[in-house]
Design brief:
The protein has about 100 residues and is mostly helical. The chain has one domain. The chain is about 40% helix and about 0% strand. Helix 2 packs antiparallel against helix 3. The radius of gyration is 14 Å and the shape is elongated. The protein starts with a helix and ends in a 33-residue tail after the last helix.
Length: about 100
């Protein structure tokens, strides 16, 4: 099994039951992971150099994750800390807790 297969099975295992478009869900997660916050208030992706996080690509990925679940994207609410309040959307890869097999 390749590393890509391991990542794919991990993502499929984490996919919520209400997802109606698994491919869109997987691709949206890849975009969101590629546009994680850099710890200094910006996006870590080189394509977004100098842009604050959440960047437009990350926001689009969140919209795609909602659409993949068969819904429409609601207006984004923000937490007191200033970040988006998206409890049903997976955390960035760097903030995920994985269990050893």
């Amino acid at each position: 099994m390749s590393d890509n297969d391991d990542v794919r099975s991990e993502r499929d295992a984490d996919r919520p039951d209400e997802v109606t478009d698994p491919l869109l869900w997987r691709r949206a997660l890849e975009v969101a992971d590629a546009h994680e916050p850099d710890g200094e208030g910006g996006c870590r992706n080189l394509l977004c150099a100098g842009q604050p996080w959440p960047c437009p690509a990350w926001n689009s990925a969140q919209h795609a994750l909602r659409v993949a679940r068969g819904g429409r994207a609601p207006a984004t609410r923000f937490t007191q800390a200033g970040g988006p309040d998206l409890p049903s959307v997976p955390a960035p890869r760097s903030q995920r807790v994985t269990q050893a097999a």
